[in-house]
Amino acid sequence: MHKKTCKLRAAELRDEALFKDPPAKEDCPICFLPMPVELICCASLQPATVSSIPIYDFAEANEELATKDMEAYYPCCGKHICRGCEYSSIMSGNIKCPFCNSDHSNKTDEERVEEMMKRVEANDAASILLLADSYYHGLNGFQQDHAKAMGLYPRAADLGCIRAHNQLGGIYSKGGYLKKAKFHFEAAAMAGDESARCIIGYMEEVAGNVEHAVKHWTIAASVGCYDAMHEMRRFFEKGKVSRESIDATLSAYNNSCAEFRSEARDACIRAMLETD
Fold first, then answer.
1. What angle, 0 to 180 degrees and rounded to 10, lies between the N-to-C axes of helices 178-190 and 162-174?
2. In the predicted model, what is the mean pLDDT of residues 6-19?
3. Over the range 74-108, which residues count as b (16 or more CB within 10 Å of their CB) and which as e?
4. Alpha carbon distance, N-terminus to C-terminus of the chain
5. pLDDT tens by residue, 18-49
6. This prediction's pTM
7. Is 142 exposed, middle or buried (0-12, 13-18, 19+ CB in 10 A)?
8. CA-to-CA distance for 209 and 190, rounded, in angstroms?
């Protein structure tokens, strides 16, 4: 008798959880600045306007940098360190871990794998994800084994690894299991992964839920996701997003990008651009 009402209420509660403000970003343990997912968030930007969004132009001109991670994982101490601090450490002549000062220069591949496996046994989520990726893609001396990888990704996700949820979402999406994919993308989004939230926006657009798509892109763009800002620009040009809405989103986007920046991160980006 109450089935329809309960389903509607369950959907409302799900939306409340899904569309609330994401948790704060994890800070780099060295510079204590928020850790962006992608390098392009740290790019030097000119003042933005609605008619010309600099991050969109930057992404087009530097597509090879657009999805590069701005953080590195060190299994010696289990820390994620931003590329700016890593770059500064290297430029200072230090080839050791920037955080715990562990020396990797003389370690063999086997020793590095052994180090990773010790952290896997200690239930370190990031190391379990690294092992899962190694099996899935056949990296770090491991034979490709999708079955083993698919046993490890959920383990990492259950331990709170956002990227594991994102990886599972991508794998299930490619396999056509869209319901499972959406579940994992939503779990990642609620934990603060803006790239996963942007993907949910695409899925909602395809499903015809334009209002939900715009909500997801607004949240993702507001915390520095250039893909989401690009989609907001596209919808603004189509007349599906108001001038007031895109102005507010763009202001939040630029503020988030500014929070990610530092002299070290700018130097790292310049070095990458010169190398490429």
1. 160
2. 80
3. bbbeebbbbbbbbbbbeeeeeeebbbeeeeeeeee
4. 63
5. 888 888 888 999 999 998 767 666 665 554 44
6. 0.84
7. middle
8. 19
